[in-house]
Amino acid sequence: MDTQRRSGEDGRAPFRSSRFFCVGSKWYFTTREGFDSGPFASRQRAETGLRRFLHVVRLLPEEQRVH
Protein backbone atom coordinates (compact mmCIF):
# COMPACT_ATOMS: atom_id res chain seq x y z
CA MET A 1 0.00 0.00 0.00
CA ASP A 2 0.98 3.64 -0.36
CA THR A 3 3.18 4.80 2.53
CA GLN A 4 3.72 8.25 1.06
CA ARG A 5 3.23 11.30 3.28
CA ARG A 6 0.01 13.23 2.65
CA SER A 7 0.34 16.84 1.51
CA GLY A 8 0.18 19.38 4.31
CA GLU A 9 1.85 17.18 6.93
CA ASP A 10 4.86 18.75 8.60
CA GLY A 11 7.18 17.25 11.17
CA ARG A 12 7.28 13.64 12.18
CA ALA A 13 4.75 11.31 10.63
CA PRO A 14 2.20 10.17 13.23
CA PHE A 15 1.81 6.47 13.97
CA ARG A 16 -0.61 4.90 11.54
CA SER A 17 -2.22 1.58 12.21
CA SER A 18 -3.15 -0.78 9.43
CA ARG A 19 -6.41 -0.05 7.67
CA PHE A 20 -6.95 -3.79 7.27
CA PHE A 21 -8.22 -6.33 9.75
CA CYS A 22 -9.42 -9.90 9.66
CA VAL A 23 -12.41 -11.36 11.51
CA GLY A 24 -13.29 -15.02 11.11
CA SER A 25 -11.17 -15.38 7.93
CA LYS A 26 -12.92 -12.40 6.27
CA TRP A 27 -11.01 -9.18 5.56
CA TYR A 28 -12.15 -5.59 6.06
CA PHE A 29 -10.69 -2.11 5.70
CA THR A 30 -11.46 0.94 7.78
CA THR A 31 -11.44 4.61 6.80
CA ARG A 32 -10.26 7.63 8.80
CA GLU A 33 -13.93 8.44 9.32
CA GLY A 34 -14.44 5.11 11.10
CA PHE A 35 -16.33 3.36 8.29
CA ASP A 36 -15.58 -0.37 8.00
CA SER A 37 -16.01 -2.00 4.60
CA GLY A 38 -16.16 -5.71 3.87
CA PRO A 39 -16.15 -8.58 4.10
CA PHE A 40 -13.60 -9.50 1.45
CA ALA A 41 -12.31 -13.00 0.75
CA SER A 42 -8.65 -11.98 1.14
CA ARG A 43 -6.47 -9.08 2.22
CA GLN A 44 -5.56 -8.51 -1.43
CA ARG A 45 -9.24 -8.05 -2.29
CA ALA A 46 -9.68 -5.71 0.68
CA GLU A 47 -6.74 -3.64 -0.64
CA THR A 48 -8.42 -3.50 -4.05
CA GLY A 49 -11.65 -2.43 -2.36
CA LEU A 50 -9.83 0.37 -0.53
CA ARG A 51 -8.22 1.60 -3.76
CA ARG A 52 -11.64 1.68 -5.43
CA PHE A 53 -13.14 3.52 -2.45
CA LEU A 54 -10.37 6.14 -2.53
CA HIS A 55 -10.82 6.55 -6.29
CA VAL A 56 -14.53 7.30 -5.81
CA VAL A 57 -13.78 9.76 -2.99
CA ARG A 58 -11.35 11.64 -5.27
CA LEU A 59 -14.14 12.02 -7.85
CA LEU A 60 -16.32 13.92 -5.35
CA PRO A 61 -16.27 17.72 -5.38
CA GLU A 62 -13.94 19.01 -2.64
CA GLU A 63 -16.81 20.40 -0.51
CA GLN A 64 -18.51 16.97 -0.40
CA ARG A 65 -15.43 15.06 0.73
CA VAL A 66 -15.38 13.88 4.33
CA HIS A 67 -12.12 14.71 6.07
UniProtKB/TrEMBL annotation:
InterPro entries hit by this protein: DUF6316
Pfam families from the UniProt entry: DUF6316 (PF19837)
Domain DUF6316: 5-58
Protein name: DUF6316 domain-containing protein
Provenance organism: Marinobacter vulgaris
